[in-house]
Amino acid sequence: MPLPNVAYFCMEMAIDQSLHTYSGGLGYLSGSHMLSAGALRLPMVGVSMLWSLGYGEQKINPDNTVEIVYTRRSYPFLKDIGVTVDVTLFGQTVKVKALKLEPKTFGTVPVYFLTTDLPENTPEQRALTDKLYDSEEKTRICQEIILGVGGLRALK
Do 22 and 13 meet the contact criterion of CB atoms below 8 Å apart? Predict the structure, then answer.
């Protein structure tokens, strides 16, 4: 495969149902781009977030109340490529690790998933990549910086 000359950054990618890193429309669009680019063997890579708890699943309780359930997930098919970068978030250095989804797994281009769920980070820093579209504004800003700045540094 030729060296990539396009890097596609997106907060969520629906590549396969077994990879809980998406919530809906944008995820389906970006995941389809990764699959199409892989089928066409385009010189491209994807960069996204590895959400430890995903988007959550709705559960209807016996009393008809709705609950969002989060499950910590692991993905043994993601490859640790030994790339960890530093990103500064509100004056604090946070470690961001890149894990690679090999094209052969689902037929995509290479996709790099970023996580802060690392032992060297504080519990608050580790939680930054727990939930897709966190409702806390500061957390969302941090997530966007992790994707943009961390993703670019990881690719370099």
Answer: yes
Alpha carbon distances (Å) from 130 to 29, 43, 44, 77, 142: 22, 30, 27, 19, 12
Q: Measured between alpha carbons, how far is 53 from 110 in angstroms, rounded to an integer?
A: 22
* 3-state SS, one letter per residue, for 51-72: CCCECCEEEECCCCCEEEECCC
The pLDDT of residue 72 is above 70:
yes
The number of angstroms, rounded, from the C-alpha of 86 to the middle of its chain's C-alpha atoms is: 17
How much is the pLDDT for 134?
82
- pTM, two decimals, is 0.91
pLDDT at 71 over 90: no
57, 40 Cβ separation under 8 angstroms? no
- Give 45's strand partners: 7
Question: Which two structure tokens, joined as six digits, stand for 155?
Answer: 């690719």
Distance in angstroms (rounded) separating the CA atoms of residues 102 and 120: 26
How far, in Å, CA of 79 to CA of 59, rounded? 32
Going across the sheet that includes 44-49, the strands are: 6-9, 44-49, 111-115, 92-101, 78-89
